[in-house]
Amino acid sequence: MLEKEIQKIVESCGAKLYDIETVNEGGKTIYRVTITDKNGVDLDKCAKISNLISPLLDVNPPISGDYNLEVSSPGVERKLKKLSHFENSRQESARITLQSGQSIEGKIKDVKDNKIFLETKEGEEEIDFNDIASAKTIFEW
């Protein structure tokens, strides 16, 4: 329910909700809201969305105890944790690590049902989403 409300706020600012996670960094708890925008994400957009989300979290705390709200872009190399992440990353290069430990690199060509289609040096690979241990986009410099 809280995620849907945050998503509405993000979309009202012309951006898309990419992910929400709670992390501990440097002894502090961070409630991180990651956003994307086809025109790019700048500091002003992050600040605006943060200012709109903050009152919602004051009334509906996402976690117990003290935390810091952080609104940011996922960056050039970003984790792919949901099927929607793969769908929104078509034509981008990615590194996928399977549950077996095998690592595969290639360009995301398509996503159908629960399958990721990756164009690798060896040809097309079809990967079941449930077989993925971790994945991220990779930026080729």
Q: Return the domain count.
A: 2
CATH topology-level name of the largest domain = GMP Synthetase, Chain A, domain 3
Order of helices and strands: HEEHEHEEEEE
* Percentage of residues in strands: 35-45%
Largest sheet: 5 strands, antiparallel
Overview of this protein structure:
The protein has 2 domains: 2-72, RimP-like superfamily, N-terminal (GMP Synthetase, Chain A, domain 3); 83-137, SH3 type barrels, CATH 2.30.30.100. Helices cover 23% and strands 41% of the residues. The protein has 3 helices and 8 strands. The strands form 2 sheets. The chain has a 5-stranded antiparallel beta sheet. Helix 2 links the parallel strand 2 (28-36) and strand 3. The N and C termini lie far apart (40 Å).
Could you give the topology of this structure?
Elements: H1 2-12, E1 16-25, E2 28-36, H2 43-59, E3 68-72, H3 83-87, E4 93-98, E5 103-112, E6 115-120, E7 123-128, E8 132-137
Parallel strand pairs: 2-3
Antiparallel strand pairs: 1-2, 4-5, 4-8, 5-6, 6-7
Helix pairs in contact: 1-2
Task: Give the tags.
alpha+beta, SH3 type barrels, five-stranded antiparallel beta sheet, 141 residues, 2 domains, 23% helix, three-stranded mixed beta sheet, GMP Synthetase, Chain A, domain 3, 41% strand
Summarize the structure.
With 141 residues, this protein is of the alpha+beta class. The protein is 23% helix and 41% strand.
